Amino acid sequence: MRTLKVTAGDLVISNGDFAMISDNEELAQSVRMNIEAAKGEWFLDEEYGMDREPFEEKPFNEEAARLALVEAATADERIEAVAEIEMTPDFKTRRLKVRMELTKLNTDETIVLEGVEI
What we know:
Layout: E1 2-4, E2 6-7, E3 10-11, E4 13-14, E5 17-18, E6 20-22, H1 23-36, H2 53-56, H3 62-73, E7 79-90, E8 95-104, E9 110-117
Antiparallel strand pairs: 1-6, 2-3, 4-5, 7-8, 8-9
């Protein structure tokens, strides 16, 4: 599948034209966008996005946050499993950086998703 490349919420323009991505880069972007969107945020599909509640609770429930990340990543039917999740909190900015290793469906291929911010 081919789609437009998006960085930090903006379409990327290269050589005067919209940049396109495909294959693993497109899949990683798709999963990233699902994680970064809040569930219910998009009125055309209220199931799109990730449940933010586990990330807003005090005290922080790391297991519930991991479960929400896995659910959002595997919402894309091309992802079979989440092999690894690393979460790095920045308490000063109240942001959480996430790194994930995803296993593609019906393959042993791994996709690394880095720099996702919640």
